[in-house]
Amino acid sequence: MRTRVLVVExxxxxxxxxxxxxxxEGYEVLKSERGEAGLQLALQExxxxxxxxxxxxxxxxxxxxxxxxxxxxxAAVIIMTAETTSSNAIRATQYGAFDYVSKPINDEHxxxxxxxxxxxxxxxxxxxxxxxxxxxxxxxxxxxHSPSMQEVYKLIGRVAGSNATVLIxxxxxxxxxxxxNAIHEFxxxxxxxxxxxNCAAIPESLxxxxxxxxxxxxxxxxxxxxxxxxxQANGGTLFLDEIAELAPNLxxxxxxxxxxxxxxxLGGNAAIPxxxxxxxxxxxxxxxxxxxxxxxxxxxxxxxxVSISLPxxxxxxxxxxxxxxxxLSRSVRPVTIRQDALDxxxxxxxxxxxxxxxxxxxxxxVLAPGGVITPECIQIxxxxxxxxxxxxxxxxxxxxxxxSVIRQVEERLVRGAxxxxxGNKTEAARILGVQRRLLYDKMSxxxxx
Length: 449
Description:
Blueprint: E1 4-8, H1 12-24, E2 28-32, H2 35-45, E3 49-53, H3 61-70, E4 76-81, H4 86-94, E5 99-102, H5 107-123, H6 147-160, E6 166-169, H7 176-185, E7 194-198, H8 204-212, H9 229-232, E8 237-241, H10 248-260, E9 262-263, E10 272-273, E11 277-282, H11 286-291, H12 297-303, E12 306-309, H13 320-329, E13 336-337, H14 339-347, H15 353-367, E14 372-373, H16 390-394, H17 402-420, H18 425-432, H19 436-445
Helix pairs in contact: 2-3, 4-6, 6-7, 13-15, 17-18, 18-19
């Protein structure tokens, strides 16, 4: 029996072209120009795969997809859309679409996708259940139509319906917190709390009580019981940013909490059950942290159940104009940007990613004469190249021995970063591009603590 494919497309020319393409490949083709008719045809004829347009004259494709799943159709579904928004990508995957293709459709890509979807369907015995209430369209702050961002949206859609722990990676300023917001928003825990903790922003001495809480009298000035962030997030999601900055003792306690799904407040003995979905994020390579002994390997595997890696802005430059327009739309006065100013923006590599771009556009809006942003309004702080002056290199005391020289260089770097950061250890670690724990170790080694 031939594989049956249902095509739901309201544009008759496109419908005919797709039908001919699929028939040439040996598929049996069913056709519909309307959503309701296509839905009934799918439930009656039980095709193996459905090509479903997202914009239909009577009912949108997302609604058809949702009702297909409610009607227990197990057909593989590929969404066809001319609007590759983050909301469409997330909603499509959340309601069980295998993937989606952008119009105009590339025939070879579509046929490859169909084969993959059919292979996936033959192996998949159970269809994931998704919530029946569609989420609100759009995720505040998430902008991008680039292929790399489309992959991020699809991962969010696939992981949101589960309780799996997620590890979000990416350079500073790429939007890791926005991804955590999206996962929570599209999850079954959306009505519960979303609690956020920046592990790098809270002093190590306070972070344990912040996460796990404490009982009255647990330490000096503990005049009353305090509920920690894990308990505050009960029934919802806990987002731990900069997870690489956790001290070893807190890593061990976090591991135990994840394994046992209970917390113990400081000064208490009771194990308190918790129901929390954990999302962690880091700008550092945790594999490297595991290799050098700064991060527990067992904790890493507990956190890295599902990983989402955010691309740096320089690798998705096609999204920059969209981001610029998003930031301009927030202005309290009408502002436009000249093409030569946008060209200047496109030429910069944006090492600070979306955050740096947003700051540059905010400054430009303030400086824009008559509400028009010119190249002169785009003030970009160029970073100095990380080179060592040749004169200093020639003076390196190589006869002192390799490790002695390396120690001198390290101490010089640490002292310089601390001076530039005004003594702020978190900022100094950021300047050096190292984990805060490594900075502490070097400060102790050089007597700077």
